[in-house]
Write a structure and sequence with these properties.
Layout: H1 20-33, E1 39-40, H2 57-64, H3 68-72, H4 81-92, E2 101-107, H5 108-120, E3 126-130, H6 136-143, E4 147-151, H7 162-176, E5 179-184, H8 197-210, E6 216-221, H9 236-239, E7 247-253, H10 254-257, E8 265-271, H11 275-292, H12 298-309, H13 311-339, E9 353-357, H14 363-375, E10 378-379, E11 381-383, E12 386-390, H15 399-410
Parallel strand pairs: 1-10, 3-4, 5-6, 6-7
Antiparallel strand pairs: 2-8, 7-8, 9-12, 11-12
Helix pairs in contact: 2-12, 4-12, 5-6, 7-8, 12-13, 13-15, 14-15
């Protein structure tokens, strides 16, 4: 008898078929359709108080208004020049960083992360990020033959542990000769934590001190940058000292900012005052586009370009987004008022998620807590020693029930 044949390469024979977050979301949706009263705090998409996906109507109109010949045609591999200009302007505004920036279109923010991993690290090397991070970072690294290494995210005061970052950065430079650091800010996924000026300046000091020992690239994942409190451009002056000394990249996405998760519109923006390095980086990123997805969603890019380039449309979208921001901020405020007395979680200034710590500190403890909550009809995502709670999809009226279930599950 012929031996059983496996056509997959060994490294691909044990891949999970679905992301745990999407699996839990599917289960919650199925129970809701069966008539159960379910709180679904799993998926990172903002829902209205009736549980329907919230969208910005002006963005929908702009997409529908894209000419058929544009929608059906190929976009340039790296994206249209007008799109690059619009994204750089949106992200960097009047910052001096803008005059030294290049961009390529990517399939959402995920595509930008993918390109950073493949272009700023060698195979088998590790990207560095916080101990609590968006789990697809690991998937992206693994799929591209890289790995993820972390530093402890929080110090004893509950702020970013900059000393832990410095130690790990030194290790990466010593063992790899280079480093790629992912920082998701503001409104970090999964914790909701936002760095203030003091934390950012400390990080920049660490990066500058280490830069003499090898090339370092900082990628700021700004997926949620328009959903927190305060000026979304506030971090830019704090990053300016890195110019020319540390590679500075941004993963920009239209998914959250424009409630267009399915359009897959994103960009990797790279800032460097050296024209030669800028050109080489642009070429490498464009080549990566061709070798990965060829080109991106032409209709989505055309619509976003129009919105960002037309002051009137831009103002309309900002006004519509502010309504959803108020909706989300009401949920955040309610959560902090009720949960702050009994639950342990990071400083939560705003954004789609927060993370509640589970006593015991083990994966099994978090999984048991999440299972207990599912018995109550409340769905959250267990991650390591904690539970990720997507306030973006929970009506303010349901926050007390959500917190009560959390308290029961973690003993708060």
């Amino acid at each position: 008898m012929r031996a059983r044949v496996e056509f997959l390469i060994p490294a691909r024979t044990s891949r999970p078929s679905d992301d745990p977050i999407f699996s839990l979301n599917a289960e919650a949706v199925a129970r809701t359709k069966q008539g159960e009263s379910i709180i679904n705090a799993t998926l990172g998409a903002i829902m209205d108080d009736d549980g329907k996906l919230a969208v910005l109507s002006t963005v929908i109109d702009a997409i529908r208004g894209v000419p058929a010949v544009v929608e059906a045609g190929y976009a340039p591999l790296a994206g249209p020049v007008a799109y690059h200009k619009a994204v750089i302007g949106d992200l960097l505004g009047k910052s001096p960083l803008a005059e030294h920036a290049i961009a390529v279109a990517t399939t959402g923010g995920t595509g930008a992360l993918r390109h950073a991993v493949s272009c700023f690290l060698e195979p088998k090397q590790a990207l560095l990020t916080t101990s609590r991070y968006w789990s697809p970072y690991k998937t992206i690294a693994d799929e591209n033959d890289r790995v993820v290494d972390t530093f402890e995210m929080f110090d004893a005061a509950g702020e970013l542990d900059v000393a832990a970052l410095a130690k790990k950065l030194d290790e990466h430079l010593a063992t790899q000769g280079r480093a790629l650091l992912f920082i998701n800010d503001p409104c970090q996924n999964p914790t909701g934590y936002t760095m203030h000026e003091r934390q950012w300046r400390a990080v920049v000091d660490v990066l500058l001190a280490a830069s003499a020992r090898g090339p370092i690239t900082l990628l700021v994942d700004v997926a949620y940058w328009l959903w927190g409190f305060g000026d979304p451009h506030a971090m830019l002056p704090w990053l300016e000292p890195l110019l020319g000394k540390v590679g500075l990249a941004f993963a920009w996405s239209a998914s959250k900012s424009f409630t267009q998760y399915g359009a897959r519109v994103g960009a990797l923006v790279f800032v460097d005052p050296d024209a030669g390095r800028r050109k080489r980086t642009l070429d490498a990123l464009a080549y990566a586009c061709r070798g990965t997805w060829s080109n991106c969603n032409a209709a989505g890019m055309a619509a976003i370009t129009q919105i960002l380039s037309d002051a009137s449309l831009h103002a309309q979208v900002d006004a519509e987004r502010r309504v959803l921001q108020q909706l989300l901020n009401g949920r955040v405020k309610a959560f902090n008022e009720i949960a702050g007395r009994t639950l342990r979680y990071p400083r939560y200034d705003g954004g789609f998620f927060t993370t509640v710590f589970v006593p015991g500190g083990k994966v099994a403890d978090a999984q048991r807590a999440a299972a207990t909550m599912r018995e109550d009809g409340v769905y959250v995502v267990p991650i390591a020693d904690s539970l990720r709670v997507a306030l973006c999809s929970v009506a303010e009226r349901d926050v007390p029930r959500l917190v009560k279930s959390l308290q029961k599950a973690v003993g708060g």
